[in-house]
Amino acid sequence: MASLVGSRVERKEDKRFLTGKGRYTADINIANQTYAIFIRSPHARAKIKKIDTSKALKASGVVDILTGEHIAQDKIGGLIAGWAIRSEDGSEMKCPPNPPLAKDNVNFVGDPVAVVFAETLDEAKTAAELVKVDYKELKAVVSLADTMKSEAIHEGIEKNLCYDWLLGDRQKVKEAFDKADKIIKLDITNNRLIPNAMEPRACVVDYNTASEEITCYTTSQNPHLSRLIMSAFGGVTPENKLRVIAPDVGGGFGSKINLYNEEIVCSWASKKIERPIKWVAERTESFLTDTHGRDHITHAELAVTNDGKFLGFKNETTANLGAYARVFGTVTPTYLFGPCATGVYVMPAAYSNVKAVYTNTAPVDAYRGAGRPEATYTIERIVDKAAIELGMDPIEIRMKNFPTEFPFKQTLVHQVDSGDYVAGLEKAKQMSDYDGFAARRKDSESRGKLRGIGVTTYFEACGIAPSPVVMMLGCGVGLWESAEVRFNPTGQVTVYTGSHSHGQSHDTTFAQIAADELGVPFENIDVVHGDTDKGTFGMGTYGSRSLTVGGIAIINACKKIITKAKKVAAKMLEASEDEVEFKDGEFVVAKSNKKKTIGEVAFACYLPGVRDEVKSPLPEGEEPGLKESAFFDPANFSFPAGSHIAEVEINPETGEVKLDKYTAVDDFGTIVNPTIVEGQVHGGIAQGVGQALTENAEYNEDGQLITASYMDYTMPRADDFPEFQLGFTCTKATTNPLGVKGCGEAGSIAAPPTIMNAVINALDGQEISMPATAEKVWKACKELKKSNAKAA
Amino acid sequence: MKRVTLEVNGKKIDKEIPDHTILSVLLRDILNLTGTHIGCDTSQCGACVVHVDGKSIKSCTAFAADLSGSKITTIEGLAKNGKMHPMQEAFKKMHGLQCGFCTPGMVMSAIDLLKNNKNPSDSEIRDWLEGNICRCTGYQNIVAAVKEAASKM
Amino acid sequence: MKTFNYHSAKEVKEASKLASSNSAFLAGGMTTIPSMKLGLATYKDLIDIKGIKKLSGIKASGKTIKIGATTKHVEVAKSKEIKKAIPSLAALAEGIGDPQVRNRGTIGGSIANNDPAADYPSACIALNAIIHTNSRKIDAEKFFKGMFETSLKNGEIIEAIEFEIPQKSNYQKLPNPASRYAVVGVYVAKYKRGVNVAVTGAKSCVYNAKDLAGALSKNFSSSAINNVKITSSGMNSDIHASANYRANMVKTFAQKAVDAC
Lengths: 792, 153, 261
Prior knowledge:
The structure holds three protein chains of three kinds.
Chain A: H1 14-18, E1 34-40, E2 46-52, H2 54-57, E3 62-67, H3 68-73, E4 105-106, E5 112-118, H4 121-130, E6 132-137, E7 161-168, H5 170-178, E8 182-193, E9 202-208, E10 213-218, H6 223-233, E11 242-245, H7 261-273, E12 277-280, H8 283-289, E13 293-304, E14 310-322, E15 349-358, H9 372-390, H10 394-401, E16 408-409, E17 415-416, H11 421-431, H12 437-446, E18 450-459, H13 467-473, E19 481-487, E20 493-497, H14 506-518, E21 525-528, H15 546-572, E22 580-583, E23 586-589, E24 594-597, H16 598-606, E25 627-632, E26 641-650, E27 657-667, H17 674-694, E28 725-729, H18 746-762, H19 774-791
Parallel strand pairs in A: 1-12, 10-11, 14-15, 20-21, 27-28
Antiparallel strand pairs in A: 1-5, 2-4, 2-6, 3-5, 7-15, 8-13, 9-10, 9-12, 13-14, 16-17, 18-26, 19-20, 19-25, 22-23, 23-24, 26-27
Chain B: E1 2-8, E2 11-17, H1 23-30, E3 49-52, E4 55-58, E5 71-73, H2 86-93, H3 103-116, H4 122-128, H5 140-152
Parallel strand pairs in B: 1-5
Antiparallel strand pairs in B: 1-2, 3-4, 3-5
Helix pairs in contact in B: 2-5
Chain C: E1 5-8, H1 12-18, E2 23-26, H2 32-37, E3 45-48, E4 58-60, E5 64-68, H3 73-78, H4 80-85, H5 87-94, H6 99-102, H7 107-113, H8 120-126, E6 130-133, E7 137-139, H9 140-143, E8 144-146, E9 149-150, E10 158-164, E11 168-175, E12 182-191, E13 194-200, E14 207-208, H10 210-218, H11 243-260
Parallel strand pairs in C: 1-3, 2-3
Antiparallel strand pairs in C: 4-5, 5-10, 6-7, 6-10, 8-9, 11-12, 12-13, 13-14
């Protein structure tokens, strides 16, 4: 039987999505449901003086109105940061309380203060307008650069500083810098982004008065984690009385990792009002309250020799956490960022110092890539700047500093098990016709356009796990993953996973790997995920971990199935266990060529007897049935890497930037389904292009989000892209049996520096910040014209 | 309240609805055709695209009362006798979807494109899809799917 | 959304009669419906005029093209008569919004709304349009009064827009990357008696750039406006484009339009 791993199998999930039969949270209705509308702060920072609900409570159709007072009375806990980060001086990070409904203070526009439940959505909206909230407005802290000098937003958190974290050795870096021929300096910002999964957040909650169980359908990337937080920290109800279901979810990109205010409030309130509740965010609410991404200011320095060898690197960053610290909010700018900031290079000395601060803006958390795009942007931009200052080719300087042997002990944390950065960059160079760039530039110039080329080589640490490591670094939970594999008596298989697919295609890829392991047809395998009443437990999907952690748990459960089935088969075949070989779904005894299919063995496991005879196929002591589970905790992260090359063409008259060519060569180790992996790369690149060229979340000085709709926030569209050219190299991961590495975030990590290096190349090295919008580029073109005129 | 008579996916519908009922609300909440999705409030994302009398429109930006007498086709109405429309088949074959949320609107919009232009170029496809936002695919396999469908239709 | 009474009028008179200070006419609804959904506008009555037959259609004469108010963008974009007489007008319609907007949005709705960044108002100014209403004819120059403001009176309905066929014309726009409305849109039209240069997106209301038009009337080439100074005073400024950038783009896009004529 041909292996399914590596083949372009069409997706199992597509038919339902393509025929309108997908079932997303907003598609779910429960008889007798009420509709929730949240009343949100219109101010970025204010004290709540009084909330008057008396008029609204009398409005037509209103069932109840609840506020932060009710939350406090019922002792419902708030939202939490999942990682405890320590400052350089050893002190613990400082996190403010974040109640599900604000009682005393609001800290960003959109912070919820009350909720209306009514019989219809229109009635809920009308009543919400009648709730009077009396605020005392306070001066908002918005500008990231000035945050530490501003008044403290949260009581007891001086300078608005959550932590001042250091990774690396300042003294070693100083010594390295002392030896350098040249110090390259770079000041950059990593723009603030809004993830914008196309499905707005939603939840539908049902309280069963008989079983006293709450069922919460929600748009989550990790339903088990949401249940855990809601139960253990929110105190909504014990875990065994809480079922969280994340049905079809329309994209997440990190923004649906967090448990949000609305899910806690609706779950708690459903029990209180004894009615089902439906809440669906409008897009503007999503803009205001989904966790945002990135938002760093960085000063970086790279110490180099005159011939382009790197000696040391330092990175001083201020990271915006927004108003509150959320699940991955505190780790994204530290352990997901700092270690990767030295990139793919041999760097004798380095440190990353990050100050994470609170502002009166929406909470900032993981967004596709989480920390690694920021790291890659920093190092890949400064490496390019070094190439410019040293008069070297960007590929040459990179090649000169790549490690040549693996495992490679990366400067700050990671032991990179495998990779071949030279091969990747060589391939990208060829595929992109790097050497033909000069001619293409000439051609652009003949049409009055500027052309630039940009290169990036990245690596990243993903497949976020090894539990002992992440817990040592401050994670509040272990990041293993679980799986359960069940054979039905008639031979079909159901695979339960703790991972969650919101576009990643688990129904298909997980069935592919299970089919290979069990020798069962792909069609006979169903993957079940997203329901806390079904799978054992799960840590969910983020950080490109589904396959490298969750997928391996499935393989391990399958191996346990085979181990048991082999024992049973041996008895059925009247052979000893070591005479039986399992291959392509069959247990075969070589010497007699007797065989049993795995389906026959499964059947026998469930029907262990024969009529009129006492004869069981089960060896003594074996239980009936065929079902196994496994928890997998890998020994290390996985380390995908790659080289991307882009070309842009700029119209100097308008400043419009056209992305003309994009080549990506990635190393994801073993590839289970090339079509699906290519899709992940395309999507990642598109989000990276968005960050580089169009997207930017902007608050005004009062803390009002100006880009709160698609009229102002520039989502990339189909006509913003050329066709991407994709290539792959392969060095297998050594830390899992499949040899797989994560692929979901690569594009969004590599694309921003690739494109910005190209834009800056077109502008003759002139620095420009992301996003490279028309006006900014136009201004830079004018400067370029001036300086060229001067030089002439 | 207004009485509207419509044909939705070949079925006659005769309903009393509030005057302000948006077509997408009628489809999703009253007719339970939840394949039509709502991704924004400003008529930009295109997840809600349906056909009215054969032309693609955004169902979030039309009043149901205004469409009385029309024939409406939603994503649920494309497959015939259990066989998917060639555009649906092409999206599946070319992996033109990931999370599936924007997909119904994409498919409906793409079918309208092929009605107007039987053999569109890459750039014509990209231009046409200006009103449909996808956050997952980077559009590449959507463009490939539309081309694939064009070759089959 | 707040509820309202929906009326579908079959005659102009009927529609006009239904109008009050708390009503709106509904054509394509491309702006009206999103504004109502977002709670930015509420009405007691919405009077649908799409059922009024005489308001739709395209009529060409030797000198003008007359387009009914409820004619959809897609119809203008595809019209053979318009493509022949004023190809730039068909091209402008083809560039409005997206295909779904063009399938529903109407020319009358667009100009009655007078969005400062809409495309059609610039065509009206550049192409010496006359706005025919149920009570009078209004010169385009007098029709567009200010941001979202026109000279239409309560109950007055646009019936058609009549464009004068130019010798040459072209429309060029720099789209807002998010909304795809015009950051700056410049419509240049050359007539025997002179040139018009209408600018949208740049200020609070569409305007005829007299200085550019004057220079081009003397010498219809893009270099003729090289030295015309365009000040940024009165120009819009937002996150996508500063006033200074807009001022510069007005000239750049005027030159593009002239070159494309």
